[in-house]
Design a protein that fits this description.
It is a single chain. This protein is α+β, with helices and mostly antiparallel strands. Helix content is about 45%, strand content about 15%. The chain has twelve helices and eight strands. The chain has a four-stranded mixed beta sheet with strand order 1-4-5-8. A four-stranded antiparallel beta sheet has the order 2-3-7-6, with no helix packed on it. A hairpin with a 2-residue loop joins strand 2 and strand 3.
Amino acid sequence: MEFGFGDEDEVFRGEVRGWLAEHLVGEFAALGAGGGPGSEHVGVAVRRRWERELGRGGWIGLGWDRAHGAYGNRAGSLTQQVVWAEEYARAGAPGRVGHIGENLLAPTLIAYGDEAQRKRFLPAVARGEELWCQGYSEPEAGSDLAGLRTTAVRDGAGYRVSGQKVWTSLAAEADWCFVLARTEPGARRHRGLSFLLVPMDQPGRVEVRPIRQMSGTAEFNEVFFDGAVAHADHVVGGEGAGWRVAMGLLALERGVSTLVQQIGFARELAEVVAAAVRGGAVRDPVLREQLVCQWAELRVMRWNALRTLGAAGDAGAPSVAKLLWGGWHQRLGEVAMRVRGAVAAVGPADWSAAAPYALDDWQRLFLFTRADTIYGGSDEIQRNIIAERVLGLPRVERG
């Protein structure tokens, strides 16, 4: 597709910059651009208030399809969505705690939900008042989503959900979780699954346990459902349609959000390059070549993201994007350590009982990016998707 910004987009850009300059102040500005992957647990209370500020401005849900009406958000063309995302990232605005509800749950409800579900949940997301988390991965399934074991048993006007989900971002802060569970006993693989909307505030029935990682942080969680209640009206797409809905949702993890991510990557790369110049590491020809490769690959990722914007039905686009950025970001962490040299192995402060795991930003970047090729669908899973759904190679039978 042809992609470019017109005069209306530039007028819109000025409006965006003006709004951010007026509202990104005080505690919001002090928070900075934190809150992305690896630091999703940071400053959540302030970021929740920022979410409501965005809602009052109508900035949540610019890209939502308006075929069923509006839900308190502004309308925005594809290019305006890109403008908003780029200006937001360049302003150093806080990482979004509402991105799962805005970018995953909402488009899924618009595509597969009924009118009652859209009216109940979308306005609250658009106002920044209700936060969501995603209940997909499980300890025995991981990226093999069809191997999940969580069950949902019909009980009167609802379902009783039992099982365990893992690697659940923002679970401790979320008000709701969309859960993929098996509603047909004995069904195998992708059959007999349903997509349920489950309230998280159910003491004794929903338990969230943080998972501490090698970076010292605990932004991911385990979630245990022990007979948690989900209303029968909150099954998206109908009972048994969970696989179709889940696959539709996964196809949404691309496009504009990828461009925003790349702006953050560019900022990180610029800091690494500046440190290499400042400390003299750039005189090493091998390291210099690695930095140039990182820059060139980032440009390729940007043009690939622009190329696939609005490319409906491109089943391989999300997988290609994930393969590109996962490996790139991991290599950036490695290059950052090489730029630092031996000092990269030394913490920023003496370890003590009160602060047993002090790391600086680059050390945390290096450690966290080890997971970039695993979470969100491992590289192996992405290659299987490309092989089977794009190249048409024979499907591998999975137990």
